[in-house]
Every structure is written in structure tokens, then in C-alpha cells.
Amino acid sequence: MSGGAMTDTTWTPGEAAARDPRNHPDLPWWKSAVIYQIYPRSFLDTDGDGVGDLEGIRRRLPYLAELGVDALWLSPFYRSPMADFGYDVSDHCDVDPLFGDLDNARRLVREAHEHGLRVLVDFVPCHTSDLHDWFVDARSSPDATHRDWYVWRDGDPSTPPNRWMSAFTGGPAWTWDGANGKWYLHLFLPEQPDLDWHHPEVVDAMFDVLKFWLDLGVDGFRVDVVHLIGKDVPDGHDVPDPEPAPLTHELLRRMRTLVDAYACEPVLVGEVYIMSTRAVASFYGRGDELHLAFNFPPLYAPWDAAAWRKRIDRVVEELDPIGAWPTWVLSNHDNTRHRSRYGSAEKARAAALLLLGLRGTPFLYAGEELGLSNAVIPADRRVDPGGRDGCRAPIPWSAGPDHGWATANPWLPWPPEADTADAAAQEADPGSFLHLYRRALAARRRSPALRDGAFGWLRSRAGVLAWERTAPGDRRVVLVNMTGKAVTFPGAFTLLVSSSPADTTWSGTLGPWTAVWLIPA
Ligand code: NOJ
Questions:
Q1: Quick check: pTM over 0.85?
Q2: CA distance 465 to 348
Q3: What average pLDDT is seen over the chain?
Q4: Residue 248, by phi and psi: left (phi above 0), alpha (psi -120 to 50) or beta?
Q5: Which residues are catalytic?
Q6: How far is CA 200 from the centre of its chain?
Q7: Which residues line ligand 1 (CB under 6 A)?
Q8: Which of 87, 129, 132, 383 to mutate to test the pocket of ligand 1 (most atoms within 8 A of CB)?
């Protein structure tokens, strides 16, 4: 018997409606949602230019609805010269022709909603492209309207104003603008000048961007590098690294007020790229800043039970007391895919039940449900200045050579699984990653305990994480064996989902690198 028979995912329409957390108005939708990140360039190309597009995402909506996720987060698809593949925005309120146009965006949001999927878009507030009209104007003259929208410093062309370094280049976070005789700040590429959020017109203009997308119908934003929007910029060479300032929190409160005024309960998910969970917690404010914040330390934890336990404990200690709702993420467009990090399919499968079994909002990265690894990128195909091409490989939807894309030559090479485990092949294999994710997502959606229930550790052997999730009348036990040896776990249970396709019942023994969800007998 395949693992597919372990859960009954067939609901009557009435049952589905009753169990659907979206029909429980007391619980914000984003607390029980699973959010699926799409990197549009790599999802599906329908026009043959080798780059994915909005129409490609639209065509896969039935697949995403069937997968069982609740919301999509789309990485930037705005007009951009693509120096940072879209995180260098030259028009926040238009779609880059590579991806389609605004009508494609409207249609995608509308049809996603028809499929029961909410849509989050990326909001990139810290910087624009150097080719954005605002920056082109800013550097055109000292009296330009947008001059002070960016961070300029006078000085000596041989000595940057402070010691800050730009991500990706290894050089200073400052570029000398010869025509103006001034430095400008860019925490990322020189093509990404930082906006100065101390300027009220910047705040208004960027808040107008939020309103534009909310009026178009989106359900929230993933906010890029959000902790640094309100930074102070000290001069001198003994300054600390860029750090959040009180202005960031004030701006977040205003942003929260803005989005909370929309009836569709938009969510703000912040990319708080700080490796301290305590610091991350501060961006929830008093329930009046971010609804959700990424917490990256677990993503960087090794495949080790003690390390994971520590990361989970930190979340419980820092977030619970302030009523902040956690997030969990294993892979995204900036980091090596977790299958490659952990080094095996077994561990990646177990990680699925780890991630989806925790208390909080999980984020899946497109292709994670297919168990994709990073692609190997030959030197002559490398394009990202940050060396992140491997995790951005195109998704193989069906057999080669084009794998369902409109061309067999996408912008990056295919991932290693393309020839053996494309999505169509996995569809036909009940033991595949795809079916494991579908089973887990269905089981999660129908269990109040797994969706938003309480979390509590259970005693277990070294190398095994064991916890329970509980809600009134509902209890689930999650076991993750991070060791290469089989281990026993006492008690009477029935098997809900196992990461191992070989398991059909609960025998009391957990295989090596295996995770299970159990129902107490
Ligand atoms: C974080 C984004 O995730 C990353 O892809 C981007 O390069 C930087 N922010 C700059 O916007």
C-alpha cells in the first residue's frame, strides 16, 4: 500500500467549508495559512524568452490549489533593469515586459482568488534602481525634486563617508557620483541606491505603492530588508554596521495602520535579516508593526536535533510572551535549497514534516514540494552578483527537453532532478515528494491542532525531536528522527503521515532520517 492511503483528503463541500480556516473570522487567515513563494523568473515561461512570466503562474494555479497551500508570495515582477533580478525596481507600479503587463497581474490575482489562493507581492522599500525616474532626477541637479529622496554625502572621492560595505560587491556601500561630486549610499549593488525614509515625500510615495497594489486586490506584502528602512547613516569609520533605528518602528506602525484599513486583512511579512530572534521579535511591535517576520536562524541550523531544539526554544521564549505569531522557512531565492544543504532526499522529506508541524506560518519555496536540489551552474552561466543562481533554477514541470517551458533553454540550467522527477512524473508516483507535501498540507488544513494549536515538547531520545500540537478535541504528535538509526517511541498511535514512502502504519519505531505525524489512539 502506498503512503497515499494514510489520510483521507476527500471532503464533502460542506465539510471543506466548515474546516476551512478562512471561514473562521476570529482567526486571522495568515495564522493558519501556508504561504508558497514563487520566484517568477523561474516558475514557468509561456512566451519562449527563457524567463518565467505571470501567465505561467496563472496556468499553474490549479496545481497550486491542489497542492493545498493558502497563499502565494510573488518575488518582484516590477519594471527593472534586473541588476539584482527585480530587487532593483525602476517602476513599482508596473510589470516588467519580461513578465507581462498589469492586465496579467490583475488577472492572476483575480483567478488566484477564484482558486482560494491569496496573493502577496514583494515590496522593496529600502532602495530603487539607479534607473528609476526618481534617482535619474535626483542626480540630475542639486535642485532636483527628488534630490533628497536618496542618501548623499559630500567628501573626498578617495574616502567613502563610512566603513559600510555593500552586499554582493565586497566594496564600499558608497559610490562616488562624479558629475555631482558626491557619494550616494547603496547597501546592495551600486545600481540600488538607498532611499531616505526620513524624507516625508519618500514615505508618501512608497505608501502610495502599497495602496496601488492593495487597490489592485493583493492580500499583503513581503517587505524586503524591512529592518533597515528607517536607519540612521552615521559618518566616520568607527561606526557600527547598519542597524534598525526608532524610525523603522514608527514607519512600520504607519504601514500597519495603512494595510489594516483594508477589509481583506492584508498581511505584512517582513524580511528581518537579523540573526537574533529577540531582535526579530521587536518588529512585531505591540501587535502594531509587522503581522509576521521571517526568523532566519532555523534556516541556518544544521540537520541536528540539539541545534533545532535550541532554535525552536528561542522562538517560543521570544515570541510567545508578546503574542507574536512565528514563521518558519527552510528555503528561498537567496539560500541554497535545503535538500542540498541537508544532503539527502530522506532528510528533505523529513524536513517537510518538521516545517509543517511547527506552530506558526510556514513558507514553502517553489520546487521544495518537488524535493528540488540546487542546480549546478557552470561558470559561463552564472548571472547573479550574489552567487544565488543554484536555488533559482527553473521548475521542471514535465519531461524534457523543455520540461513544460516554452523553450528548452531557460535563463538558468535545470536542477538535477529535472530528468528523473519532474512534476508530472511525481504526480504519477504516490511515493513522491509532491504526494508527501499534498498529504501533509491536507492533514494540516483539517487538523486544528496542527493549524494553530498549542506547542509542547515531549520526551524523546537524543537525536529525535518530539512535540505535540493540541487544540480542543484534537491532538497530533510530531516526531523527527535526525539520526541515521531507527529509534523507538512509546505509546499507542495511528499514523497520519510519514516522510518515508515505505511506512503504511505506525509500528512504534521511527526509521533513520524519518519524520511522522501521529494521532494518539
Ligand atoms: C533581500 C532579497 O531577498 C534579495 O534577493 C535581494 O537581493 C536583497 N534583499 C536586496 O533587495
A1: yes
A2: 15
A3: 95
A4: alpha
A5: 224, 271
A6: 30
A7: 84, 87, 124, 188, 224-225, 271, 333-334
A8: 87
